[in-house]
Amino acid sequence: MNLEAIKAKLNALNNNGQEREKIDYDKIFWKPTNGKHNVRIVPSVYSPDFPFKELKFHYNIGKFPMIALSNFGKQDPIEEFVKELRKTSDKENWSLSGKLSPKTRVFAPVIVRGEEDKGVRLWSFGTNIYKALLALAEDEDIGDYTDVMNGYDMVVEQTPGNPYPTTTVRIKPKTSPLSTDTTKVELWLKEQPNPLESFTQFDFDYIKNQLHGYLNPGEEVNQAPAEASEPSTFVHEAPVIPGTGIMEEQSTFTLEAATEGKKTNASKFNDLFNE
Q1: What confidence tens digit (pLDDT) does each residue in 104-142 have?
Q2: How many CA atoms lie within 13 A of 61 on its CB side?
Q3: What is the pTM of this model?
Q4: Can you point out the beta strands (E) in 116-239?
Q5: What 8-state DSSP symbol labels residue 59?
Q6: Could you give the C-alpha distances from 96 to 4, 5, 211, 245, 266, in angstroms and in order?
Q7: What is the phi/psi pair of residue 176, to 5°?
Q8: 39 vs 243: CA distance, rounded Å
Q9: Three-state secondary structure call for residue 49
Q10: Spatial distance between the Cα atoms of 236 and 63, rounded to a whole number of angstroms
Q11: Which fold would CATH assign to domain 17-273?
């Protein structure tokens, strides 16, 4: 018996068939801790005119968050099911569609002062922080705070809360260069993690199976390995900063409600995917 092969197989089964490369996520993502942090948003190498990248994720449906396939211009089974639910006038269908709708996270490339040696990382935040950052850029007294010569650092402060901490952002009062070291600036503007390549792109069937398991609690779900069509990595933690209000509690919704035509949501699921 090959014990190494046995160990590898056990690890694969424990990971639901998804082999996950061990990644130092501190090199990819930055997440504020309690206290104040001086941060500089830098121009994105992938979108020089707009440093923010909006991505949609499915939460609480599988064991881990899943990036929606619509981010890649592909058909996503959960979003297709949500569309079907919203074709009816049934109140519980609309309630379920709200639970299943993907949540938006926004990513910005940042340099954290005091941690410049870690290079550019991705800061992930929700709608409230996003609106605040857009409003700062719109302010004629501030403007382009990502400018490498005359931009602004900002203070990101996280304070404990009940049950979640609160994150606030304020601009520093004076402009400053991104760095006086032109070599570092050139490196930071060139080498940045790509948000679209920082999460596993699960295939259609895998996401559909996770949805089926969510809709049919207790029923065994096929956990065959998903074929990731992009050479990306998997983030073990949900890309959620507590306090942004987008992480929902695990639903205990049962599919006993009928849709129009007296069809259950489970049968509507079958109609959609088994035509």
Answers
A1: 999 999 999 999 999 999 999 999 999 999 999 999 999
A2: 26
A3: 0.74
A4: 121-125, 154-159, 166-171
A5: -
A6: 44, 43, 12, 18, 12
A7: -160, 155
A8: 19
A9: coil
A10: 10
A11: Replication Fork Single-Stranded DNA Binding Protein (3.90.198)
